[in-house]
Design a protein that fits this description.
Elements: H1 5-19, E1 30-31, H2 46-56, E2 62-63, H3 67-74, H4 81-92, E3 98-101, H5 118-125, E4 126-133, H6 135-139, E5 157-162, H7 172-192, E6 197-198, E7 201-202, H8 211-227, E8 253-255, E9 287-291, H9 294-300, E10 308-311, H10 319-336, E11 339-343, H11 346-352, E12 357-360, H12 362-370, H13 373-379, E13 383-388, H14 391-399, E14 404-407, H15 424-434, E15 441-444, H16 450-459, E16 463-466, H17 468-471, H18 476-486
Parallel strand pairs: 1-2, 9-10, 9-16, 10-11, 11-12, 12-13, 13-14, 14-15, 15-16
Antiparallel strand pairs: 3-4, 4-5, 5-8, 6-7
């Protein structure tokens, strides 16, 4: 706590020297501006606050005020989610590279001016943190710098968990800030470590751990700690310190809107392995061949064991050509009773009709959301799948309530220019634990034969997306049979 002007000045001077030292990589600095207690009692005077803003914030990579602290910094009350977003922009203008306004307090707390509404009531049922990054901070480590993702902090992201009805939340704000710093450091250590390299490549989602990912991991960590909170002595008990997030029950979502409380999920799918349950949802096939021509569609629809096919376009971006291919592929799949999934070109899929589902990567998901496409896809009754490569992308995928989630590349692949390192089997296991069990997990990337598919299945994936394992097989029928057996 920077409780005095002198202390803030001294810390600011020290941070300036650290940040301006050209000989070493500057440390990542998280500033938790502890200024007001949960009960609303001020802990610092105005001179300390001004010194913190002027001397410390310019060297902070992230500042983490709660609602009351943000209001003190801004000199105004935050009554709506829009107020929070505007407030984050104003705090960002004070000099830090990023700000997260913590949502442990609802918008109704400590404020008799707020009128109850759907958007303010959402802050009661959910704990929602708002993260905003400067363009400079957002560009660091961004896999595709010229295309936005829903989880890009420069867009501003709402990170949401269900709110636990618990008084045992002592220390949650400090824990969140510390956990963010720790998670970011884990990612940096993994990128720097020789031990994380296999054949010259980094492996696992930790290598992709940037600030947005660290905030999502920290949010999950704190939520798990609140869930296990107990009273020790008098008053509210402390948040419990657990381990690295490993349960979907505490893993957050990135929401399109802080006021959204009723987004309808896309049509449910169940895995082949749970198809004997009472659910009426269609069962996803054990393998998902990905092909790029109508000719391959025609061959595969007559191949025993094929229940789903994804059509991906690599040789053209011409809308009319794509539309024609989708129409012909759709007719073939419908006549054979095979489900057709269209990769990326959701507008053409909607126009063509007859497709079962649409699959989008993270950049295309963001552009689809911005164009109002999710509602159109949902209204058309199509199933919906989303690619993920990092923790924040998984949070964004969960936020749109998809039919399935895919993870990749599990192993190195030459079939696509992938901006992420291979994930490895351990990430498959982790993804399966972080995704609700009623959402199937598809593994993709480098699954070149049945032996590889078998270890992917053992790691927890219910379906393997395959390309060369089918299209390069000497005997397609036997290859499909072996792949299905491996994914049993």
């Amino acid at each position: 706590m920077l409780g005095t002007q002198e202390l803030a000045d001294e810390v600011g001077s020290w941070l300036r020297k650290l940040k301006e030292n050209g000989e070493k990589r500057a440390p990542f600095v998280v500033v938790d501006p502890v200024m007001i207690t949960t009960s609303g009692h001020k802990l610092v005077d105005d001179s300390a606050k001004v010194a913190m803003i002027e001397k410390v914030f310019p060297y902070a990579d992230l500042v983490t005020p709660n609602k009351f602290e943000a209001e003190e910094l801004l000199g105004k009350t935050l009554c709506t989610p829009q107020d929070v977003e505007d407030g984050a922009r104003a705090i960002l203008a004070m000099g830090p590279r990023a700000v997260i306004i913590k949502g442990g307090h609802s918008l109704l707390e400590g404020n008799n001016k707020v009128v109850e509404s759907e958007e303010t009531n959402a802050s009661v049922g959910y704990a929602q943190d708002y993260l905003l990054l400067s363009n400079e901070a957002a560009a660091e480590g961004k896999p595709v710098k010229d295309r936005a993702r829903l989880c890009d902090g420069s867009r501003g992201v709402w990170i949401r968990n269900d709110r636990y009805d618990s008084d045992h939340t002592h220390g949650t704000g400090c824990t969140l800030s510390s956990a963010i710093a720790s998670a970011w450091a884990m990612g940096q250590r993994e990128r720097d470590s020789i031990g994380s390299s296999i054949g010259g490549e980094n492996v696992g989602a930790l290598c992709a751990m940037r600030l947005v990912d660290a905030c999502c991991i920290a949010k999950s960590y704190v939520n798990a700690g609140i869930a296990r909170g107990v009273q020790l002595g008098k008053g509210p008990g402390p948040v419990v310190h657990t381990g690295f997030p490993n349960s979907y029950k505490n893993f957050p979502t990135i929401e399109l809107s802080a006021s959204n409380t009723s987004m309808s999920p896309f049509p449910a799918m169940q895995s082949y392995h749970s198809a004997k349950s009472s659910s009426a949802a269609p069962a996803l096939g054990r393998i998902l061949p990905i092909v790029d021509t109508v000719e391959w569609i025609e061959q595969l629809v007559s191949t025993p064991g094929i229940e789903d096919i994804q059509l991906r376009f690599k040789d053209t971006t011409d809308y009319d050509i794509i539309l024609d291919r989708i129409k012909r592929s759709s007719a073939l799949c419908q006549s054979a009773g095979v489900r057709l999934w269209i990769n990326d070109y959701w507008k053409a899929a909607l126009e063509a009709g007859g497709c079962f589902g649409i699959h989008l990567g993270q950049e295309d998901l963001a552009s689809c959301v911005d164009a109002g496409g999710l509602d159109l896809i949902r209204d058309a009754g199509l199933a919906f799948g989303v690619s993920t490569h990092s923790y924040s992308e998984l949070c964004a995928a969960l936020g749109v309530r998809p039919s399935y989630i895919s993870l990749g590349p599990v192993f190195s692949t030459q079939s696509k220019d992938v901006k992420f390192d291979p994930q490895g089997l351990e990430t498959v296991r982790q993804w399966r634990s972080l995704i609700p069990p009623d959402i199937p997990l598809i593994a993709i990337g480098g699954i070149g034969n049945a032996d590889v598919a078998k270890v992917v299945r053992e790691a927890g994936a219910e379906c393997s997306a395959v390309i060369g394992a089918v299209t390069k097989a000497a005997d397609v029928k036997k290859a499909v049979e072996a792949l299905n057996a491996a994914m049993e």
